[in-house]
């Protein structure tokens, strides 16, 4: 039954409520007479007809090819003279039965030595491809936008700069596959795939087969209108034995040369990372000489590709490499010096004009209770360890934080004045991977007691970290792993970086969300990934606010990741903006709705 009536509603304005009522009625307990009226809707019947609620809107492809006003460095024909003269250029083919009798080289780097690199690693899954797959046009049926989410994606009142860097990111080991093909040597990550080789769903030897499908992957980015693609080069594909003076793999050089050329052909700007966690084992065994080994590799890559690459990332998330790459904190100093060596060689010897950075991991630590000084100290101490060790010398020309150097049994020494001078100002902007934030409080025993005990599980930062607020609420919507939809902390993360390290600009080099149990859903359900859309949309709205209201120079944002990939041994954590069918033999890709929404956001918010 519909009730049509005029409703009387009390309107009480101001801070003198009691006085107003007394003045009107003579008694503070009398019924108020200060009223306003409004009409309820007028309900009615009419004839019904179906309304079209969807429309076929198509993605706009990139113009191609891309052209730069000038090259970013001399072409290889000129730069090749900068390379060492006594380098062996060859390629390898893995044959586990190779013996000394068939060994032709005497320098210890022949086919037998190459086979021995792989002697302890085997894989259950074999790549279904043996050559690069030619790209095919993306059908228009794949480029239809999903149902619109008005008003969620209709708020373009604030604009991003016209030159804002936006696109997607991936890394070699996580998507390429073909670990033992193309003359590649092993990396320290390869044991993950080998140890799990009884589980074909996580076999890194297959991954998503980007090594052979890269042309199609780049074509798919261009068809959707994605202008930037950040990818990494596998060190051990270029230098299979890893170390300085060992042979350089011509097949690896040709592969990445074609990856970059394919990007340019399709109108996609390449952003190249030199190391994304996949160090050659021989280099990790000799980290004290990292600069020598790294520069040997970096020179081979940069001399060939630098004329076409406007952005270089020397190391991915080196600030969290303690434990995953080496146990000693001294690795951070080794990486700092290796990064600086490559920066100076590129800028001063090669004469390159591209911008160079390295990429930090950091989910900002905030005090669990901001009114508690020990919680604030815990957050600051955590940040000193996770960002200050490398950020202070790089961006502030300052020493490693005192709270780090004064920690008992810490295995890192202060930088010398010469080392500080070498390292300072060797990033052109800061890059950060801020997936979420977290709350910090002291270790139960207190910071001082924890710091004195190097066997304590929270040593050396001695911060207890949680994503649960002090009042018991989660900080946001949890993912399958550690990411959270918690946009309220994006501006604090950016503000911390901007006001603490005062960089020229900030690139959000990775951010993403992996919905809970996504791998168990149907293809249609995986594609309609509303949570991921909301994560990116809310995150980017806060980036806009940080730019316009906080005055922070955010220069770009790159989504993780280009495809559902191998998240270091697991396909359960699916961060990709595209699905991959790893059971059809073709590794067919499908765009997710979040990819369309992501592109749409930038088309609405990039200033023209």
Structural summary, described in words:
- Helix content is 32%, strand content 13%.
- With 608 residues, it is α/β, with parallel strands linked by helices.
- The protein folds into 2 domains: 34 residues, no CATH class; 422 residues, Glycosidases (TIM Barrel, Alpha-Beta Barrel).
- The strands form 6 sheets. The protein has an 8-stranded parallel β-barrel, surrounded by 5 helices. It has a 3-stranded mixed beta sheet with strand order 10-12-13. Strands 1-2 form a two-stranded antiparallel ribbon.
- β14 and β15 form a beta hairpin.
- The N terminus is likely disordered.
User: Which homologous superfamily in CATH is the superfamily of the largest domain?
Assistant: Glycosidases
Q: What is the helix content?
A: 25-40%
- Determine Rg (CA atoms, Å): 28 Å
In the CATH hierarchy, what is the class of the largest domain?
Alpha Beta
Summarize the structure.
This protein has 608 residues and is an alpha/beta fold. The protein has helices spanning 17-25, 76-79, 111-117, 172-175, 190-195, 210-224, 235-238, 250-265, 281-284, 290-305, 330-350, 373-396, 402-405, 417-423, 447-451, 490-501, 523-527, 530-550, 593-605, and strands spanning 6-10, 35-39, 89-90, 165-169, 228-232, 248-249, 269-273, 311-316, 355-361, 364-367, 430-433, 437-442, 463-466, 477-478, 484-485, 506-508, 554-560, 578-580, 589-591.
């Amino acid at each position: 039954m519909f009730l049509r009536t005029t409703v009387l509603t009390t309107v009480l304005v101001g801070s003198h409520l009691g006085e107003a009522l007394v003045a009107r009625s003579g008694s503070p307990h009398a019924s108020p007479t200060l009223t306003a009226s409004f009409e309820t809707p007028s309900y009615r019947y009419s004839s019904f007809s179906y309304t079209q609620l969807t429309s076929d809107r198509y993605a706009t492809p990139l113009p191609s090819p891309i052209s730069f006003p000038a090259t970013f460095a001399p072409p290889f024909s000129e730069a090749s003279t900068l390379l060492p003269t006594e380098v062996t250029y060859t390629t390898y083919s893995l044959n586990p039965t190779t013996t000394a009798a068939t060994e032709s080289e005497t320098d210890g780097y022949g086919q037998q030595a190459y086979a021995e690199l792989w002697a302890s690693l085997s894989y259950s899954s074999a790549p279904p491809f043996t050559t690069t797959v030619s790209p095919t046009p993306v059908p228009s049926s794949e480029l239809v936008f999903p149902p619109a989410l008005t008003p969620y994606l209709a708020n373009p009142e604030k604009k991003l700069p016209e030159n804002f860097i936006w696109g997607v990111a991936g890394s070699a080991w996580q998507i390429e596959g073909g670990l033992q093909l193309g003359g590649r040597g092993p990396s320290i990550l390869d044991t993950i795939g080998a140890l799990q080789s009884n589980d074909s769903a996580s076999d890194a030897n297959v991954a998503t087969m980007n090594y052979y499908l890269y042309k199609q992957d780049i074509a798919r980015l261009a068809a959707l209108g994605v202008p930037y693609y950040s990818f990494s080069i596998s060190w051990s594909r270029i230098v299979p034995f890893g170390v300085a003076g060992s042979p350089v793999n011509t097949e690896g050089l040709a592969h990445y040369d074609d990856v970059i050329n394919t990007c340019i052909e399709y109108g996609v700007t390449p952003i190249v990372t030199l190391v994304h966690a996949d160090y050659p084992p021989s280099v990790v065994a000799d980290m004290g000489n990292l600069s020598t080994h790294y520069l040997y590799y970096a020179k081979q890559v940069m001399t060939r590709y630098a004329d076409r690459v406007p952005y270089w990332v020397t190391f991915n998330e080196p600030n969290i490499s303690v434990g995953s790459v080496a146990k000693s904190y001294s690795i951070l100093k080794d990486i700092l010096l290796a990064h600086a060596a490559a920066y100076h060689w590129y800028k001063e010897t090669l004469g390159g004009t591209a911008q160079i950075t390295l990429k930090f991991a950091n989910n900002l630590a905030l005090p669990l209770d901001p009114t508690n000084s020990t919680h604030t100290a815990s957050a600051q101490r955590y940040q000193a360890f996770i960002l200050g060790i490398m950020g202070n010398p790089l961006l502030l020309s300052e020493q490693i934080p005192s709270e780090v150097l004064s920690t008992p049994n810490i295995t890192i020494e202060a930088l010398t004045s010469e080392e500080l001078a070498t390292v300072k100002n060797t990033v052109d902007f800061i890059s950060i991977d801020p997936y979420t934030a977290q709350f910090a409080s002291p270790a139960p025993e207190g910071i001082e007691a924890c710091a004195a005990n190097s066997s304590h599980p929270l040593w050396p930062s001695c911060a207890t970290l949680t994503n649960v607020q002090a009042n018991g609420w989660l900080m946001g919507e949890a993912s399958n792993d550690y990411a959270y939809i918690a946009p309220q902390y994006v501006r604090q993360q950016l503000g911390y970086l901007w006001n603490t390290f005062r960089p020229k600009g900030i690139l959000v080099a990775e951010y993403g969300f992996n919905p809970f149990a996504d791998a168990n859903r149907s293809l249609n359900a995986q594609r309609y990934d509303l949570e991921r859309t909301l994560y990116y949309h809310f995150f980017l709205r806060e980036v806009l606010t940080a730019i316009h209201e906080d005055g922070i120079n955010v220069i770009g944002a790159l989504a993780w990741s280009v495809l559902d990939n191998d998240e270091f041994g697991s396909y359960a954590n699916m961060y990709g903006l595209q699905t991959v069918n790893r059971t059809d033999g073709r590794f067919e890709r499908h765009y997710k709705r979040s990819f369309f929404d992501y592109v749409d956001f930038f088309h609405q918010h990039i200033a023209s």
